[in-house]
Every structure is written in structure tokens, then in C-alpha cells.
Amino acid sequence: MQEKGFSEEKILKILQKRLCKDQKYSSGKILASMCTNPLEISKKTYSIALEKNLGDEFLFPGSSNLEKEVISMLGVLLSNSHAAGHIVSGGTEANITALWVAKKQCNNRKNEVIIPISAHYSFERAADILGLKLVEVPLTNEFKIDISEVENEINRQTLAIIGIAGSTLLGTVDDIPKLSDISLENDVFLHVDAAFGGFVIPFLKDLGLYEGVFDFEAPGVKSITIDPHKMGLCPIPAGGILFRDTSFLSIINRSVDYIGLGKVNLTTLQGTRPAAPSIAVWTAMKSLGRSGYRSIVKKCIENTAILYEELKKLDRTQVIIKPTMNIIGFTCSGVDDKLVVDKLLKKGWILSLCQTCIRILVMPHTEAKHLKEFVSDLNDVLLSIK
Ligand SMILES: Cc1ncc(COP(=O)(O)O)c(C=O)c1O
To answer: What is the fold, at CATH topology level, of the domain defined by 10-38+299-384?
Structure first.
């Protein structure tokens, strides 16, 4: 740090220069992000709440009540008006919290967690921190967890099963009702990672585009990750962890004597934590309502269908699977996917280059015209590579 402080003018000038290197969602060229532009009104309410600390509900009871209302709204979205939980920093913290509760609930007697190979790497982090062993099971040809493999792997050491509702790579949804049956039969904790899908699937169901059960409607589901900072159009950081009822939060409760005359109980990993994300999520949900989210998801799905059809028309691209939500994976034949991604990057397109495919997220900031322009550039790139 320099000795003498800079003026506001100077700071803003430096920041403007430094931050102009960052990409902007409004370009339409970011096809690799699970986050998007937050709603304007959520940005506004976020910025008026910067000093508020949800780790101290004695000082900030208004904020604390708003967080509770957000959890209740998310609970209803996930078929459970009694759900309890918190707005956390993201899907990673939510997944760690779920396994932390699962581990403590069985008094550390069991340590194996069955996960599909499609699970997000945050479970690796969770296992590392909590001293758990991940037992990875393969997927079916629909890219969903193989239920018979789960049954094979269940044993007396099995602490938890993870089901994914909207996989990171392809947006597929595991058979949660079957996992629920297995978890109840074997007295195993079932966590559903709907970090991405949580703000998509309920609206697909409203639109008649998805029929399965993926949430607390399945009786074995004990916890769900749902991230407002992905398809919830909220500012980062805003993840969500919901449990079936408050008893799960009690497991990690810690009363703290130096806050609120010794009356504050904390049920989060973080101590001091921002209220602004909860306030911004409350704002987004109140502002859009169910119909607002439904229209946004409808648009994303329609645009995904456009991209899917356009990709199918190209000779040298193969779509991995018909998309369930607004994520598409594809590969190119006779050419290295990396070369294609690199050439498209030179044209400004930002894609995810994954081990098995190129992945595209059709987010609210992506419009049909961007996708048509992208496919035209992709076609040119493929023609340029013999
Ligand atoms: C299914 C899933 N779970 C969890 C996460 C982790 O979320 P975050 O990056 O907010 O920690 C992601 C992120 O992509 C995800 O796709």
C-alpha cells in the first residue's frame, strides 16, 4: 500500500482502466458462464445493504427476517414450505454444508459418499475437508447416475448419496425418486445438487417441459443446493442450502457469547456474512415473481432449441445429448475440439472446453441473434480446417 491515499477520481480512473479487461455479458459472446447479469433492482438493493452482517441477527433482525423469507420462498419453489437453510457464498459452500450436516448427523460413524461422475468438483473439496471418501459411480447412456451401480455400492459405511439436478456439464437430472427410495431403505442421507437446475426445473415443470420429481417432493431428499447467483439472476455471491426442516440446522448450531448478549445461534460455516446477497435474492424473487422467472427460462429454452437445431444442421458437429435445460455439449468430428475453441476465441466467442465436449450455456444474456452468429462463425471455422 502506498503511504498517501489516492483521490476518488484517481481510484475510479485506475479501476476503469484495469476492469475494462473483464468480459461483459452484454456482448452476447460469453457462452461459458453459469452466471449472468443480475437484475438492476437486485444490484440496487444489494448496494444499500453493504454494512449489514447476517452473522449478527441481534444488530440486523430485519435482514435476518428477510433471509428467512427467502429460504421459505425457495422452499416452496422446491416443494417444501418447512425447509430451513441459508443463503451462502455459492454452490460449493452449500455442498460442503450439506455433507457437514450429514456427517454430524450420524455422529461420524460412516464416511462414504456415493456420487455420480457428473458431480461438481466441490464434493471433492467437501470430502477433503470433512475426511470423507467419495465413491464415484458411472452414468447411464442418458448421462444420469446409474441406479444399479448405486445399489451395488451401498454398504454399512455409506453416509450419503448425491443426486444432481442439472449437471454442470450437460444439465442432466438424475433419477431422484429412485435415489430417494434407496436412501430411505438404507437410512442414508440424500443431498440433491440443484445449484444450476434449482432455478430452471420448477419453471420447466410449469411450462410442461419437464415431468420428473427432483426436489423435496421425493421423501428421502434431506437437503438441496440451489444457487440464486446462477439462473436466479442475483449478484454474486448468492448460493443456497436448504434442509428438509430446522432439525438439520440444529445439528450444526453454535451459540456465540460475544454477539447479541449471548443469545445468537449460528448455523452456518461463516461467522460474519453479508446480508446484501439475501436482500438481493429477496428483491429478485419479489420483483420477477414466478411468472417472471418462467418467462426467462422459457426464452433460454427456446434459444437452446434454436442452437440445437442449428448445430444438428452442421456436417461436422455432434450434439452429445438432446438438452434437458439450457446447456448443450457437442464435439466436432475430424478435428480437435481445442483447435475449434481456440479459433472461435479469436473471433471473440468464449466457450467451455471440457474433457469430453465443448459446452455452451444459453443464459438470459444470450439472444437468438448471438447464437445464429456463433453457428455461422463455427461453420466458417470448421470449413477453414481441412
Ligand atoms: C451443479 C453445480 N454444483 C455446484 C457448483 C458450484 O457452485 P459455485 O461455483 O457457486 O461454488 C456448480 C458450479 O458450476 C455446479 O454446476
So the answer is: Aspartate Aminotransferase, domain 1 (3.90.1150)
